[in-house]
Structures are given as C-alpha cells and as structure tokens.
Fold:
Amino acid sequence: MNLEEQNDLLVDSLLWELVGKETPPDLRERILEQAEAEAKTVAMQPARPMATLPRPQLASARPSKAPLVLALAALVTVLGVVGALWQSQQAASAALPTLAAISGEVSLAEGRLSRGERLEVGSGGKATLIYEDGTVVGVTGRTTLQVGEGSRWSGQKVLEVRAGKVAAEVVPQPKGSEMIFQSQYAEARVLGTKFTFENEGGQARLCVTEGSVRFVPQAEGEDLVVASGYFAEAGELGFREGTLAELEQKGVVAFTLMNAETDEPMRSKPLRDGEVVVLSSLSTRQLNVRADLQGEGEMSVRFLVKRTDGTATGIPSAAANLQEHPPFFVAGDHWAEGRPNDCRAWTPEKGGYQISAEAFDGAGNPVGQPLSLTLNFK
Amino acid sequence: MNTEELEELIQAHQAELFRYLRFIGADYALAQDLVQDAFLRAFRAKVVPELANLRARRAWLRRIAHNLFIDHCRRNSRSPVNFDSEQVEVAEAYWNREFYEHDEGFGCMEALEQCLQTLTAKQRDLVDSFYAARRSRDEIAESLGITSDGVKMALRRTRKALGNCIERRLSEA
Structure:
C-alpha cells in the first residue's frame, strides 16, 4: 500500500467517524462481563496435577551455578516489586490534591484529600486545591466536587464537579494521563492549561483562557479540542461551542434543528448560517427549529420566517406572534394544550429559508441583536 | 492482570484501538468484535508489559489487535482486505505518525471538521450522501446521472482534497 492509498484510507476512516457518526463504541461492560465470566470459570476448575518431568542427567560432577543464578533472580524480583510499589505509591500521591486555602463555609479542613472524598463549598466560600506538580484548582462558592479515580499507573488526576464552578491552572501532564474534570454532561481532559469548568443549570461549560482542553460530551461521543478564547457546553439543551466573547451576548444566540417526533434535538450541534440540510439523511421529516437564548430574566421571542423564493413556508401564521413561554420553536408548540416542550411538526419543502428571531425582556425592550440564519433544505 | 486493571486499560485505549482497526480496513462491526477480542486476549496474557509505560502498553495492545485482524483476513478468504503482516506494520507506523501523534488523533478530526467547510456544495452533497445518508455508489450514480466508477473517482478526489487540507492545517497549527 503506497502513501496515497494510506492517506485515502485515513481520510475515509475519519469521514466515517465525523460525517457517518460511526464513533468508537463503549465496549467496557461487554468486555468486563466476559472477562469476569472467564475468571470465574478458571477459579472453579480443579487444580491440574503437576506433570512429572524426567530429571535431566548431569553432564559432569562440577559444582552447579544454579543457586547463585537463582539468588540473583530472586534479588532482581524483590527489587522490581519494591520499585513497582514505590512507583505506585508515588503515582497515587501525585493524583491527590491538598486543600490549601479555605475561606467561608467549606465542608473539610485543610489537608490532603483522599480518593472519593467530597468537598462542598457554600455560598460566598472559597477553596484552593493544590497538587504535588503545582496544578492549582480554585473552587468557587456553591460548588460540590469529589476526588475521582484516575489511572493507578500514572498518577492521573480526576475531579468530579457535581455542581458549581472551578477555575484551574493545570501544569503540563504526562501524555496519556490527562487531568480529567467530570460532570454528568461532559468531561474536560487537560494536558496543561488555564480554564474554568462549571456544572450549572443543566449544562456543563468549559471556557479556555490559555492552551487547549479536550471536551467530551457524555451524550454523543463527539470530542473536540477547545482552544484558548473559546468555550464549549453540553447538557440538557444540547451542545454549543463558540468564542468567549459570544458568551457575553444576550438574547437569541443559536438555532437548533429539532425532531418533532421525539421533541429532542436532531443533533447536538446548532445550525450554521448557510447550512445545507439533506432531508434524506435525517431520521424524520417531522422537524422544527428551536431558538436558544442566553441572558438572565424572563424573555419572549418573535420569529420571522421567509422562503428565499417568496413561496409559503408551511408554518402556521400564529407562530409568528410573540412567543412568551420557553422553549421557543419556529413552527410553534403545543403550549396551549399543556405540553410546552412538545414542538409542532413542520415538514419544510425543499429550498432556501431565512429564519430570524429577536428576544424581548418583560418590559418589551429588545434583548441583544436579532439572530438570522439561512437554511437550505435539499 | 485483574478486572480493575482491565477496566482501566479498556477506558484508556478502546477508542484508539477501534480507530486503528477502522483505518487498517476493518468495518464497524468487525472493529467492534476485534477490540473486544483484543482486550480479552490481553486479560488472559501470561506476560504483560509494564503497564505504567504508556508507549509499551499501546504498542502491545495494537500488536494484539492487528494480529487478530490478520488472522481474520486469513481465515476469511472473502475478506475485502488483503493485508500481510509487513503491510500492517507500515500502516501502523503511518497511522501513528500521521494520526495519533496529532493530539491522539483529535488534531486530525478538528482539521477535517474545518476542511469540510471548504468543500464545494457538490462535494459536500456527495460526502453527505455517501457517509451520512449511507447511499450506495450505484444509488448516488443514478441520482447524479453518472457511472458508479465516476462516483468512486469523485469520492476519491474529494478525500484527496480533504487530506491535503488536513495536512496544511496541521502544519500551520
């Protein structure tokens, strides 16, 4: 196979994963189940009697060197075991943080934390965790985290952020042993950099201010590397990424393609301006589009949808009225029937659409800029 | 090796092994089976490399997986891939250098995501129809009014363009 063929195979396998969504499956349970069954079978088997081997004839009566060799081998083994134990203790110690500075309401006293130990910092409290290699994690108020289990071989650091926010400065970690910040929505895997990781409002959000961090949403195995100046978030509203400046925006910040049969996003990533949606590649044609908002306080949304060729959109005219109850769907929902999360089904005709949405606060003032999107259904 | 150690090995390396097997020619279902077999074989192994050594354990697991793949190809003469052990070694070295070394492959993924944006509408349609909608080359050929070989060539040219784009972006990174 020549270089060109190898290049082709590599791009082909990447396309199957990225476009064809053939991401690596999680086989842990399947393999462990079988390994445990095998281990049990071996343990239940009766011990096999030792075969009696013919004793080799000694070639001469000279004194054998075997005892010396055996003693040396035993010494090497003992040294190896001691070395491995020492290495494993060093690794275990490197994986555990020390609670170094606390103020306000903090559930633990200063000192080394152990695996599985939980730290709770109350409202207005603060705490700092320091690792042996100089990695520092600042824990803000109203945060709960737990020291997780990393790889036993490499001193891998794992912190589970159950709620709240941490700001970390991670010194470069050994390759293959990234520090992991976990939540139920996503993980951040860090080789060495500055960032914040928070778990609030049904979303896990990573904001990177220096270096880059791998973000691993739990819902779909689509990992991405978040560079300095960018954020990524995943959780109950799906997945979103962008610049840190975008996080400061208020009002409508994204549009998400919805499956109106399940009322779930068709995919975790928001729609892109100018995107071509191939209807035949979707699992359903019962669709809708959700406007995603950012900012505090109650907001309402007004949509405007047009076809680029001027023909009818197929969306009920009532959906163009000011929508006052989240979530906000371009083609409306069944809020009036008591099902606010149940979006109405819309089967768009093939062609171009322009969708725009503007948010308003309780007093009817616009919040942020209207967001517009051009979509082409094919 | 005990089951706890096995679990950590699986967690750390299953995605890497799966991607490697896909690259050397295993389809999705076969790669899934071979990853499972590779870890079970590692679990049963009497001689295990020093597991704290990342390079050693990666090489060991990859060797097990590609031996299993070669065995599969030899047993199944209908297998679409015909790999001898020398070719697999060349492929392994290439994969390590061109894929894994770029942030364990994520550099390539990210570059591909950006490169997909640079495709023409026609190329993007072709990629979506084949990889996302899983339409066969014949089906695509019929809808485009060209031959199946024409689709094959067009896909290959698109992959080549994407490969060049990925290489450029990685060298700029």
Chain B has a mean pLDDT of 85.
